[in-house]
Amino acid sequence: MEKQPLNPNDKPPSYSAATAPKTNSSWQPPSGYSSTQCGGFTSWPPPPGYYPSASGTNNCNYVPSYGSTQSTTIIMPEIILVGGCPACRAERTSPANLSEANVAEDRGKPRCTTMPANEETLNVSSDQTRVNFVEKVCNNGLQNNLDRVCPDNHEEDCQNGCPGSIVKGKSNEHCHYKSLPVREIHEKFMRSFVDLLLEEALFMVSSLFVDPYGLLGQWLTDALNPSVYTYEVSPVFSLMEEEILCEMRKIIGWMDGSGEGIFCPGGSIANGYAINLARHYRFPQLKELGLSSIGRLIIFTSQDAHYSVKKLSAFLGIGTNNVFEVKTDNRGKMSITDLEVQIKKALDEGAIPLMVSATAGTTVLGAFDPLKDIAVICKKYNLWFHVDAAWGGGALMSKKYRHLLSGVELADSVTWNPHKLLVAPQQCSTLLLRHEGLLQAAHGSKATYLFQSDKFYSTSFDSGDKHIQCGRRADVLKFWFMWKAKGTQGLERHVDRVFELAQYFTDYIRHREGFNLILEPECTNVCFWYIPPSKRHLQGENLLKVLQKIGPTVKERMVKKGSMLITYQPLRELPNFFRLVLQNSGLTEADVRFFAEEIERLASDL
Ligand SMILES: *Cc1c(COP(=O)(O)O)cnc(C)c1O
């Protein structure tokens, strides 16, 4: 009945609890809950087209992207899994009166975003989903589309026992489902399964978490099950990868998208590729002769860089001690002065400075290193300039925020994960290079069973040998699909919206008692302390000791309660602080306020 917020052309009318027509005027919020907590509605369900968000911010004319990969910050899925306001529904859909009718009626209801979750409602929600799903599978005869073999003397067992056996886990030893492909049977099974997914699962995902286009792309990829090593095996995906990587290079600012690139199994691996390429560029003989043919190499990265720089340096035989940590300033950005100090130190020690790995959007503080200044230093000392924009790269899609990465076009290599800020489904990660031919030179091994040189088409289309993987998933389709469907503009609006939400949250807690910002955020990471009322008089050492314990205690409580997940961590001398990372443009201002209010609730007695 109600309009789903996912239709780009559907703007819900702005909501006013006072003017909303009452659909069930005898309805009262469940005991213990106020009407405000239930979205301000005094009737339920809300009338068509109305959304239970007083701020009315979800009147999106773009498709929001949902995701929680970087994020550490999510509202637990179960709350929203079956739609509607869990607390409001708790009464009508307690396990006792869980009926098909109730469930069907509730499905697709807008949710009440200010509602605190509790164990009971969470259980109701996930039970409901399970019951729903299992019932459908059993009763709609999904499994009847499978061909069963029943031994003659067990005909009755098969009649009675088999239908539930797939999903209920009560396997009936006398029933055997034929498992070899019989085309008609499997087609019927697939169709019923897709119908079921469309009825049940699509609803779940459309209300949360996964970009719908990204998800469809992912499903399609899994259905096609390609491996992108050669053109003959994956012609469309091979070309699609080149196309997308070229577009990404254009966005970085490389003329006409020149250079090359690859999809990687994650940003960590992409950073590892960058190290190996920097090394190969300088010492091509290394590929054959190995590490002993060169001297001690040094990599420079900031104290706040992602741990993968060290991890992959260890993996590549460079050694973690040879990753020199450059100091950061009070905004978490790499200090140029200290970078030069570190480079000179390496030279004094007779080592070979190899590369700088700058970070655009550090994982914890969300800081952007000064790329232009770092490029100048790299030029001066002849160093490879890598930018780890795994997290912050998405900001390049936004006219408003791309200045944060200015200077990225001067890099030799860039790590950019569409599965982070742009929330393509996991995983979708790229390494982009200003140079051409280096990937094949550094990694190619010309396996004759795959990369024959006497094929009937140009083997330049066979991109597989540029990778260290052999068989490889097509991570491109889901991102291609999202990008095509929403346009660069849609991705830009997503980015702008999550930045806006981060700013909203920052302003919301800025003057709120007990909250203390660690720093003014540059990205969508908001880092802050919370001091509960009884501890606000403390100062100095005593306060630090208390803060150190607040993080883990509140985290434990939120995990056990199941209301949300916000991470915490210490950083150098700073005791544990919370880190809210916003990535989901489908959230409302009310959701974001919930994060702060829930921390207050969870810490009220500390
Ligand atoms: C997340 C992250 C990575 C690692 O990416 P994965 O895809 O998780 O391997 C690397 N660098 C930065 C700055 C990140 O935030």
Automatic annotation (TrEMBL):
Entry-annotated residues carrying N6-(pyridoxal phosphate)lysine: 420
Region (Disordered): 1-38
UniProt biased composition (Polar residues): 21-38
GO CC annotations on file: cytoplasm
Source superkingdom: Eukaryota
Keyword line: Decarboxylase, Lyase, Pyridoxal phosphate
Named cofactor requirement(s): pyridoxal 5'-phosphate
GO BP terms, alphabetized: carboxylic acid metabolic process
The keyword Lyase is annotated on this UniProt entry: yes
Keyword RNA-binding: no
Gene Ontology molecular function, alphabetical: carboxy-lyase activity; pyridoxal phosphate binding
Oligomeric form and interacting partners: Homodimer.
Family, per entry: Belongs to the group II decarboxylase family.
Name of this protein: Cysteine sulfinic acid decarboxylase
